[in-house]
């Protein structure tokens, strides 16, 4: 299968800044990739290189198997939706959507039909004659998406497509964006610094840091099986417990925290000696029976309500402090000072060498 996009050892510097250091990856046709990472890690540079606004210092970029070296942006069949998606303010919605079609010499007779199709796709039928300032933020965002997709590009690049919207609209448009991309069948690369957005939009996530791809994989794999401390922390809230391996079996290790809390951890690695484990708050189980089997005694230090979840801060008798996330339901209540049993399922931890 020919990759829709392929980077082969691509490096890019801006003066002293290494924006990308020798990165390689490939994207399958029709796949949606989320590029996730902190500010300045090189996400936008990846998009700008694919679009042809920048040239790599080293390495090759291929689109549909064709090397892009020397091709101008307009010679690449790539749809773009850049940050803040500046629509042309003096043009109507229809003119905005048709812009790329006119510039790519699309047969003029077919342009109105294509615009109508795009309006339907982004659910803006009837809005064609409005100007951007007569639209809500979400509507403007959808016009920008329609403009990016109007030329039926085989590849679309979306840089923080939902960042200008408020949280509620962002959540709603995530699903719409996914539907639209699926309907068009384009390969898509979406840049975001929001891990939730990356997990909900990307079929695969590339987690970037300092010009490198730290890990790539399906959202659940990256979330539950991070292979570095950076990825574990970047993907979401994490408890870290320091200690060492106290016993080893074929598919498990016994982990002993510095404070003496011992529990088994499922692992296929060959780790021994000093170690730390990462465990997501939602994996930490609390039982109101403080002496339940296999649990360590803990005391509730604080309860933080976060809408759908509560974070229960726990001080364990061993001296460790960890956080458990549990659903915010009226029938489950924990109070400060309450004694509880705390346990961690052996398969919910990831072990790292220290
Ligand atoms: P953000 O999430 O803040 O948009 P990003 O991950 O998209 O960040 P890039 O825009 O790709 O990051 O930038 C990567 C690095 O390259 C940064 O350190 C940035 O300052 C630098 N950089 C990017 N473009 C230029 C430029 N034209 N001139 C100089 N430095 C640049």
Question: What does this protein structure show overall?
Answer:
By secondary structure, this protein is of the alpha+beta class. Helices cover 23% and strands 36% of the residues. Strand 7 (155-159), helix 5 (167-184) and strand 8 (187-192) form a beta-alpha-beta unit. Helix 2 packs across helix 3 (111-121) and helix 3 (111-121) crosses helix 4 (137-149). It is globular, with a radius of gyration of 25 Å. Adenosine-5'-triphosphate (ATP) is lined by residues 14, 17, 19, 37, 39-45, 193. One of its GO terms (molecular function) is ATP binding. Belongs to the ABC transporter superfamily. Keywords: ATP-binding, Nucleotide-binding, Transport. This is Spermidine/putrescine transport system ATP-binding protein/putrescine transport system ATP-binding protein.
Radius of gyration: 25 Å
Distance between the termini: 40 Å
The side-by-side strand order for the widest beta sheet comes to 6-7-8-3-9-10
Biggest sheet layout: 6 strands, mixed
Helices and strands, in order, run as EEEHEEEHHHEHEHEEHHEEEEEEEEEE
Please, what is the average pLDDT?
90
Keywords: ATP-binding, Nucleotide-binding, Transport
GO molecular function: ATP binding
Family: Belongs to the ABC transporter superfamily.
Organism: Rhizobium binae
